[in-house]
Amino acid sequence: MYRYSRLAAVLGCAATLAMVGCSTTGSGVTPTTGGANFDSGWVQKDGIVFHTPHYMATAQKVKTGNKPAITLVYSGGPVLVNPKMYIILWGFKTYGDPNKVAKLLKSYGKSIGGSGYNNIYTQYYMTSGSNVYITNPAKQLGGVWKDNANAVPAHPTDAQVAAEAVNGVTHFGYDPNGSYVVATPTGHSSSGFGTSYCAYHSAVNSGGHLISYTNLPYMPDAGGNCGASIISPPSDETGADEGVTIVEGHEYGESVTDPNPPSGWYNNQYGEIGDICAWTNIQNDPYGKKSYTAQPMFSNASQSCVHSYP
């Protein structure tokens, strides 16, 4: 669990201003690459200022089982009201994509908008004078960038992934409603992938902008630890790459409802909207004419893990 600090409030309000407007009191301290006193949870490294990542555990590491009646609690920070997914394919052409993950991610991103699954997020909101609810627009894929110019380290550090997210913002432009997905190619995943976690999302502060981003490793490399062949795959993907949609669906939902963790919707004991339901009741969900493998997400309305809403 991460402590929600004044710094997080200030950065959260900065993002909210870009979306609908908000106000804050107190001075606060925004981190800069020139050196500052950072509140808990923020890291300055290699010229990048990013928040401590929020990890999705592997199928073997996650704590499952019955949970008591709980809810996600709102801590006053931003959410992505009009969510968009921006996919950064970092070095896929250079290092390889044997399982055609790039094609799957693009198809998935084009299909999720307006789905019953993504409608789960519409029960959550942020407060800016009044409650502003998350929407479920029909088109949620903001763009795909094949970055083959910047070399991918064998094991990218958190700072290097955050820096690539900033590169993505430079390419696409800054979208305060954007979830920037840094997808790394086969054999080039951050340390710990597949053994302790499958992916993570976080926030980076660049040029005064709060950027929500995801580190999405090459899921087929982890095999069953991150969802491969977990159930019989739908016609729109293979058993080897089922983890791609399970994990990115998890991270996207958390990026939408808690882009600067844990200042959005969070439960102090069980985590975010995806954590509570991770690796449970996996099924193939419809997304328009397509179908993809997905975990359920947590619904405050029913206090349960669901695959659609209402």
Summarize the structure in words:
- With 310 residues, the chain is an alpha+beta fold.
- It has one domain (43-64, 80-303).
- β1 and β2 form a beta hairpin.
- It has helices at 6-19, 92-95, 101-111, 158-172, 242-257; strands at residues 42-45, 48-51, 54-57, 73-74, 84-90, 125-128, 130-133, 141-147, 178-183, 197-206, 209-216, 265-266, 283-287, 290-294, 297-299, 304-306.
Find the structural class using helix and strand composition.
Answer: alpha+beta
> Could you spell the SSE succession in H and E letters?
HEEEEEHHEEEHEEEHEEEEE
The helix count comes to: 5
Helix content: 10-25%
- Please give the domain count: 1
Shape estimate: globular
Short description:
By secondary structure, the protein is α+β, with helices and mostly antiparallel strands.
List the helices and strands and how they pair.
Blueprint: H1 6-19, E1 42-45, E2 48-51, E3 54-57, E4 73-74, E5 84-90, H2 92-95, H3 101-111, E6 125-128, E7 130-133, E8 141-147, H4 158-172, E9 178-183, E10 197-206, E11 209-216, H5 242-257, E12 265-266, E13 283-287, E14 290-294, E15 297-299, E16 304-306
Parallel strand pairs: 5-8, 5-9, 9-11
Antiparallel strand pairs: 1-2, 2-10, 3-10, 4-12, 6-7, 10-11, 13-14, 15-16
Key terms for this structure?
310 residues; alpha+beta; 8-stranded mixed β-sheet; two-stranded antiparallel sheet; 5 helices; 25% strand; disordered N terminus
